[in-house]
Amino acid sequence: MLRTHRHSRSKGRKAALAGTFAVLAAALVAGFTQIAPSPTEAETVADGETVQTQQTGQWLTGYWHNFENGSGVMPLTEIPAEYNMVAVAFADNHATLDGGITFNLASSELGGYTDAQFRSDIAAVQAQGRKVIISVGGELGHVNVTNPTQARNFADTAHQLMQDYGFDGVDIDLEHGINAQHMSDALHDLGSRVGPGLIVTMAPQTIDFQSPDREYYKLATDIADILTIVNMQYYNSGSMLGCDGQVYSQGTPDFVAALACIQLEMGLRPDQVGLGLPAVRSAAGGGYMAPSQVVRALDCLETGANCGSFSPQTPYGPIGGVMTWSINWDATSGYAFANTVSARLGNPGGGQPTEQPTEQPTEQPTQQPGECTASAWSSGSTYTQGDRVAHGGREYQARWWTRGEEPGTTGEWGVWTDVGAC
Length: 422
What we know:
This protein has 422 residues and is of the alpha/beta class. It has helices at 11-28, 39-43, 115-127, 148-165, 180-194, 215-222, 253-265, 291-303, 327-331, 336-344, and strands at residues 59-65, 85-89, 92-93, 101-102, 131-138, 169-174, 199-202, 229-233, 240-241, 247-248, 273-278, 321-325, 382-383, 388-391, 394-398, 402-403, 416-421. Strand 5 (131-138), helix 4 and strand 6 (169-174) form a beta-alpha-beta unit.
């Protein structure tokens, strides 16, 4: 879609969002008192001279593995055409330049895929009108951009990689903290070298937008003039507050829509907001949603249809698109994610989901309740770290604050630890 300024929403919605952030501050970031610029103020940042031209459709972004983790490997040319944005995961720390990045193809893990083949395949994918970007970070990636020298080194090396491999831009997926000021300086420096064709994406975690003083929140505001899309990771999250101040549990369309609303009301244009979900259940520790449920979240945000308990006051129209972790994981399901979601993108309300919507977890405990001493789990109760509950004949212990997340459904890395049968 064309990148146009989003019209500011009603004062009532702005007031509601401000009230929500007061709640967020009290619940999550004690002591915060400042609210970010309103949508109207943020819109003045971008102008026709500096903002890159967006594609005419929505993005379906997928991460491509430069490693083997059990999901399988593939050359870039095997990526289905439904993915019009490919994020190569991941860049490496530069050996000598602090804050700099480099890229090393893991040929031995990729079945002998050579550097020459990789470069040729980037060009082939781009010749089809698709974009290929380099992602920086991931769960294990640590690139520090916290001072002017590191910012300059990041911009220098990112630009060199773009020139060397032909990447269209960068994805910021640093999950261990960023400095908004210096990363903004680095990305604007890169933008001044590349020009309006630069792709800049980011994949923050849900906690990163729960308060305006969070660094990713500030970064998105600071680089709104060059930002292509924010693909929030709506998984491995636990429960979070939506833009209406209500608590939502991951793994539901309500969770995705209510949290995406925060970005849509903070001043980003709808085309700068994307929804990031795991392609299959195995791709994440929690927060998986069937592709049909991702479609429901899109419908709710864009047209106001298929909403659950959360519904936007005014539908936003087409948003930026959807991201998944990952293309490789999607391949294990025959690309069910790409096939379902791409059919929906650019076609709001065009067709019913092929899977029946369900707000309930698809996995149910197989054991009947036994004699348990812990209190029974309640969907309306709040639990904190160390609390124990009984559910389905088993006892569970909370790893962190949670409400509404059913024990036995959050996976190995989710909020509930299975203590054993009771």
